[in-house]
Design brief:
Shape of chain B: globular
Order of helices and strands of chain B: HEHHEEH
Strand order of the largest sheet of chain B: 1-3-2
Helix content of chain B: 55-70%
Helix content of chain A: over 70%
Distance between the termini of chain B: 25 Å
Oligomer: heterodimer
Number of helices of chain A: 13
């Protein structure tokens, strides 16, 4: 019968901090035995003096104490956090910063790697998400481990001192941004993604922007652009696109429009517009063999659409122009309004 | 258990949890060992889970509010706990806090706006 109690105490002891283990076990044992005595005394009152204690009595007592895990858990300190509330805010903040920096770094490094290597495009493109995921996992992992260690071994007072909200004052509250001042996160993230994709494709794989013509099982690929002429424009386009990526990352960080941001946005938009106009105004930008390749295919209508000076071309230019001017005007209007 | 009962039971548990230390300290003016303390609390209507009580006693001892010693005079060794000077001062402060709180809450519950003049809440 004692054996069950010893088993129980052993099971609890396994989960207890080593230093207090023996002491707690000794105390628990005396309490359990007290309880058992009381129960047996009660049983004798009910069932007569010759009642013999059974294993069931022991089980009843042990059940009333609860599972060894539960009992041991209650002896441990309350704050059993991986990362406690005092550290959590700082943890999240650092996590965003580290993740952002890692994502940016890996994106740039992988983009350069893709641009400078010669493998097939699709395979190369898979590198980016793969690299991003593994870098993100290790970044989250190391930040978490560092914080868990601070939580585990840091002095309680020290950790409380780290609390970001300790020096809070209502005087430092930011004004509530008016709706037109808020930078929309999804738009900005989409802009970053598309710009990076454009950077990769137009620089490293301009030949895949092509007319794909399948006839008799053979695919003939005719690039739309004259790659040499295109490269000449790309030098300038790259500056603007990289500028746009950096600007958008900065927009993510501040989350609110200001005059400098709006001006930078206008400058980049206008710059892109000018380059697009220059490109479309230069017939040499097109691959000379594209017209021949298009003849006799379902793509033939494209050639009619694309000719410089045609109505459809003018509409195309007008749309881009209007869009850019509208965006610029919007920025200028809001910029004035917010002052 | 219905949703309502569950909410009430959780909230009741939280209410009791807050008063546990006060209840335990109040019974330790004179030495008690684990089992006798459970008895004395239960007799007075405060039912406390044993697996909560004993760790609590150790915590209070660690905080310096209780003294403990193993008594070897009886049939089996028992650990006795008793209030020390610091514990007694803490207990007195807690009693004051409790009395204030009790008065405030009683007033709040008796009347709708706490000024003692209105009819009792339904």
């Amino acid at each position: 019968m004692k054996d069950w109690i010893d088993r129980y105490l052993y099971a609890v002891g396994q989960k207890l901090p080593r230093l207090q283990r023996e002491d707690i076990k000794k105390e628990l044992k005396s309490i359990i035995l007290d309880d058992l005595d009381e129960r047996i005394a009660n049983q004798k009152l009910q069932k007569g003096e010759d009642y013999e204690a059974t294993e069931e009595d022991v089980f009843a007592i042990l059940e009333s104490f609860g599972s060894p895990d539960e009992v041991a858990a209650k002896y441990k300190p309350n704050n059993r956090y991986l990362i406690g509330p005092e550290l959590y805010e700082l943890y999240c903040l650092l996590l965003y910063i580290v993740l952002g920096a890692v994502a940016l770094g890996i994106s740039i490094a992988t983009t350069i790697d893709i641009l400078s290597s010669q493998g097939p495009f699709i395979e190369q493109l898979f590198k980016l998400p793969m690299n991003l995921i593994s870098a993100a996992v290790s970044a989250v992992g190391s930040v978490t481990i560092i914080f868990a260690l601070i939580q585990r071994f840091g002095k309680e007072e020290g950790i409380k001192g780290i609390d970001l909200n300790k020096n809070w004052s209502p005087r430092n509250l930011e004004p509530v941004p008016v709706s037109y001042e808020v930078i929309k996160m999804p738009d900005t993230i989409a802009a970053i993604c598309f710009t990076i994709i454009a950077l990769i494709i137009f620089n490293r794989f301009p030949h895949i922007i092509a007319m794909y013509n399948v006839s008799e099982g053979i695919t003939s690929v005719t690039p739309i652009f004259n790659l040499d002429v295109l490269a000449g424009y790309m030098k300038y386009m790259n500056i603007l696109w990289i500028g746009a990526v950096l600007l958008n990352i900065y927009k993510l960080k501040v989350g609110k429009w200001n005059t400098v941001l709006r001006l930078s946005e206008i400058v980049i938009d206008l710059g892109v517009l000018i380059i697009v106009l220059m490109m479309t105004g230069n017939p040499a930008i097109l691959n000379p063999s594209i017209k021949d390749a298009a003849v006799g295919t379902e793509m033939e209508f494209l050639m009619k659409l694309g000719g410089i000076g045609t109505v459809s071309f003018r509409i195309f230019i007008a749309v881009i122009l209007l869009f850019t001017v509208f965006e610029a005007a919007k920025h200028i209007y809001y910029s004035i309004k917010s002052h | 258990m219905s949703n309502l009962e569950e909410i009430v039971s959780n909230l009741t548990m939280e209410l009791r949890r807050g008063t546990l230390v006060l209840c335990v300290l109040s019974q330790l003016e004179k030495e008690q060992y684990g089992y006798s303390l459970v008895q004395s609390l239960t007799e007075r209507g405060m039912i406390i889970d044993q697996s909560t009580l004993y760790p609590l006693l150790r915590r209070l001892e660690k905080q310096g509010l209780l003294d403990s010693n193993w008594s070897l005079d009886e049939s089996r060794p028992r650990r006795y706990y008793v209030l020390n000077e610091k514990g007694r001062r803490v207990l007195n402060s807690l009693i004051e806090e409790w009395t204030d709180m009790n008065n405030t809450i009683t007033k709040l519950l008796e009347t709708k706006n706490g000024d003692g003049d209105n009819e009792r809440l339904d």
